[in-house]
């Protein structure tokens, strides 16, 4: 037994084949599996959604990583402009009148991850982080296209505005007031993203088919 294995076995509270029989494991899994789950229990701390998109993963990632496209597929983010800080953009969140939203995009080409670091009212601390990933559907579903995942974690600032002095008006609701609607709202926006990506993919496929047909016709004429 390696030193690492020995240390792991000694940690209390682990459920492993070395200390748990199959019947015990099945009983524990049954306890954790219920016919219904309260919304707060599922989406109280984390909100994750996912969707299949009939679009090549490289195309989906290339679109998603361009931050200005947030204006197309999100419900309310509009009019982004670069700030004096490199990589930081500012736009309007029309969900609440007068609200400015700051955003920086961090992406990884190899993993096809796109993370949107955002915040309302100020751009010094970007605590609203939207974690997205494009996965080749061929890898996980055995068919062409993409699977896109999107996760939000409930940062403590969702419960209390860290900069109330920057709010554009005293009666403006706080972004955290909408947390219980994140799953539904993000599902609507994911549907927008899916529709846009599939539209562009279909256009590209049609253009490629037309080009191939034209080239084949030209080649036949020159024979």
Any overview of this molecule?
The structure is a single chain. With 223 residues, the chain is α+β, with helices and mostly antiparallel strands. Helix content is 36%, strand content 24%. It is built from 7 helices and 7 strands; from the N terminus they run H-H-H-E-H-H-E-E-E-E-E-H-E-H. It has a 7-stranded antiparallel β-sheet. Strand 4 (100-108) and strand 5 (113-120) form a beta hairpin. The radius of gyration is 23 Å and the shape is flat. The termini are far apart. The mean pLDDT is 93.
Briefly summarize what is shown.
The protein is an alpha+beta fold and 223 residues long.
Set out the fold topology.
Blueprint: H1 3-10, H2 22-32, H3 39-43, E1 46-53, H4 57-64, H5 70-73, E2 77-82, E3 89-93, E4 100-108, E5 113-120, E6 128-136, H6 137-140, E7 146-153, H7 182-222
Antiparallel strand pairs: 1-7, 2-3, 3-4, 4-5, 5-6, 6-7
Q: Kindly estimate the percentage of residues that lie in beta strands according to DSSP.
A: 15-25%
Mean pLDDT: 93
Uncertain regions spanning at least 5 consecutive residues: none
What's the arrangement of strands in the largest beta sheet? 1-7-6-5-4-3-2
Query: Which secondary-structure class do the elements indicate?
Result: alpha+beta
SSE pattern, N- to C-terminal:
HHHEHHEEEEEHEH
Rg (C-alpha, Å): 23 Å
Task: Give a short account of the largest sheet.
Answer: 7 strands, antiparallel
Tell me the number of helical segments per DSSP (H or I, 4 or more residues long): 7
Helix content: 25-40%
Euclidean distance between termini CA atoms: 71 Å
| Count of β-strands | 7
What is the 3D form? flat
């Amino acid at each position: 037994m390696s030193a690492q294995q020995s240390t792991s076995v000694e940690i209390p509270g682990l459920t492993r084949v070395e200390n748990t029989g199959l019947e015990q494991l099945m009983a524990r899994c049954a306890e954790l599996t219920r016919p219904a789950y309260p919304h707060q229990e599922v989406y109280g701390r984390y909100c994750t959604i996912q969707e299949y998109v009939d679009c090549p993963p490289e195309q989906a990632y290339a679109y998603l990583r361009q931050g200005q496209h947030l204006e197309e597929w999100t419900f309310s983010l509009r009019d982004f402009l670069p700030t004096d800080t490199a990589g930081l953009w500012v736009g309007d969140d029309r969900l609440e009148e007068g609200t400015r939203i700051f955003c920086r995009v961090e992406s990884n080409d190899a993993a096809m991850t796109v993370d949107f670091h955002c915040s309302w009212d100020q751009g010094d601390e970007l605590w609203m982080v939207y974690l997205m990933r494009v996965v080749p559907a061929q890898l996980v579903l055995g068919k062409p296209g993409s699977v896109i995942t999107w996760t939000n974690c409930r940062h403590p600032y969702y419960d209390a505005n860290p900069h109330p002095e920057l709010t554009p008006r005293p009666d403006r609701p706080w972004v955290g007031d909408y947390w219980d609607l994140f799953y539904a709202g993000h599902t609507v926006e994911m549907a927008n993203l899916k529709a846009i990506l599939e539209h562009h993919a279909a256009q590209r496929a049609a253009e490629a088919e037309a080009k191939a047909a034209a080239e084949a016709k030209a080649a036949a004429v020159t024979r």
